[in-house]
Design a protein that fits this description.
Blueprint (H helix, E strand, L loop, with lengths): L2 E5 L7 H15 L4 E5 L5 H6 L5 H12 L2 E9 L2 E2 L1 H7 L11 E8 L7 H12 L4 E2 L3 E4 L3 E4 L2 E4 L1 H20 L8 H10 L2
Parallel strand pairs: 1-2, 1-3, 3-5, 5-6, 5-7
Antiparallel strand pairs: 3-4, 8-9
Helix pairs in contact: 1-6
Length: 194
């Protein structure tokens, strides 16, 4: 099973990347390996110029194609997800996220930016073919404290992230939902027999 962790922060030591690595440890504890890819793994020129035909973009697309699930983490700047993450996503093919389970993770200065995942990131993921987007995990800067190499994650955030990762694992174990349906619809269908 292949799980790709996509880090959208321009900083190697960021709150969103810390949450991504926490999720990777949670996956490892469940016996699932994951690999991380971020802005620093792609040439800046390729990202800025949108070199879709470059070697780095081809390698990115191969890794995404091989993944059964993606955890995509981003900081929220100016009420939107990071532009660097958008540059990475722009290098993917139109339906690159079809048949993949996607878990968005975001951090921001305040809870006022909570909906950046719903109204900013999720539409872009949907445009890339994602139909199995799990409920995202959002944390404020106060909830993820960076102290040098140490990271302190608020208990509520850890619980929500643990729950989200566990849900991702259960989705992977049961196989992807039927083509074209999202997980929210399937949950309602099962609950209300629609």
């Amino acid at each position: 099973m292949t799980i790709l962790m996509l880090a959208g922060s321009p900083s190697r030591q960021s709150r969103s990347s810390a949450l991504l690595r926490y999720a990777a440890r949670r996956l490892a504890a469940r016996g699932l390996a994951s690999g991380e890819l971020g802005l620093h793994d792609l040439p800046a020129e390729d990202l800025i110029e949108g070199r879709h035909d470059g070697a780095a973009a081809a390698a990115l697309r191969r890794r995404v194609a091989a993944a059964q699930a993606l955890l995509i983490a981003t900081p929220v700047y100016k009420a939107s997800f990071a532009g660097g993450l958008k540059a990475i996503l722009d290098l993917l093919d139109e339906k690159a996220l079809a048949d993949k389970v996607v878990l968005p993770i975001a951090t921001g200065g305040t809870s006022a930016h909570l909906l950046a995942v719903e109204y900013g990131l999720k539409p872009v993921l949907s445009a890339l073919g994602a139909r199995h987007i799990l409920a995202g995990v959002y944390a404020t800067d106060r909830q993820v404290a960076l102290q040098g190499e140490e990271v302190a994650i608020d208990g509520d955030v850890r619980l929500r992230l643990d729950t989200a990762v566990d849900h991702l694992c259960s989705q992977l174990a049961s196989g992807p939902p039927a083509q074209g349906y999202d997980l929210g619809y399937l949950a309602l269908k099962a609950r209300f027999s629609i």
